[in-house]
Amino acid sequence: MSDESIAADAAIDGDAVLRSHDVAEFAGTTPRALRHYHQIGLLSEVPRDSNGYRRYSARDLVRVLRIRQLAAGGVPLRKIGTLLDQGTQSQDSLLAELDRELRAEVERIEAQRKVMAELRRRFAQTARFNGGEGPSVTQQFDQDVWTLVTASGDIDADTAASIQDVLQSEAVAERIAAWHPEFERLEAQAHVDEASAERLVGQMVSFVETVTEATGITPFDEAKPIAGLIEGMQDDAFSPAQQQVWSRFLAAMETRWGAGSDSAEGGSEPAFE
């Protein structure tokens, strides 16, 4: 061993006996992670032995363990150094702030889980209705519109939940069954006769009336930007026969719930404001 190597080993603190892989194994991490901690300043540089390997003390290991605990608790690495180096009072303040951030993150995740649960419910419902097959064009349009108005925030979660509860009720299910299958069958047709169109529109309006009475929520405002998006989607999704029925349905809706109608003046809450 050279004089330089002997001097390097002698300069190492007697407590600095752990190598990178030892510390990593104790802390449940990797030597690469330790190098990253050094690079970003979470770990101070430690002595190296004559072969160039870092040597860590028990105190260094404790700091690594604390880093790992905080990181596992959701604390960003960029904040861990400040947290470890502050006094107890400052640490408590920072931890309280981090706790608030984590609560907000939990709320965001819970909201996402509700969306996922709703999507799964709707997909399962469609699969049962179609005997395990994918959604029809009309059903896909329904799902896309619902995603648009809920995920965009045009209606809040409570309103969406209220509507869903009503749609799953027996009375409303009967109203849907009265017109939706027949409307779907128009997907492949270019024309619908006058009597069929009028009957379908009447059933569709009756369905909306039932939902409105149950929720106190009137149809969306056609002046809103989202109405234009939905109109564009319907142009792509509906067949000419469905377009004929839908145009009449929208006209009936305007007569029933438009700005100048008696229903609009009655004070029901618009669904998409």
UniProtKB/TrEMBL annotation:
Reply yes or no: does the keyword Coiled coil apply.
yes
Q: Which UniProt keywords apply?
A: Coiled coil, DNA-binding
Coiled-coil region list: 95-122
The protein's name in its UniProt record: Transcriptional regulator, MerR family
Q: Which SUPFAM superfamilies match?
A: Putative DNA-binding domain
User: Has UniProt tagged this entry with the keyword Coiled coil?
Assistant: yes
Looking at the record, the residues that make up the HTH merR-type domain are: 23-86
* Species: Agrococcus casei LMG 22410
InterPro entries this protein is in?
DNA-bd_dom_put_sf, MerR-type_HTH_dom, MerR_fam
PROSITE patterns from the xrefs?
HTH_MERR_2 (PS50937)
Q: Which GO terms describe its molecular function?
A: DNA binding; DNA-binding transcription factor activity
The superkingdom of the source organism is Bacteria
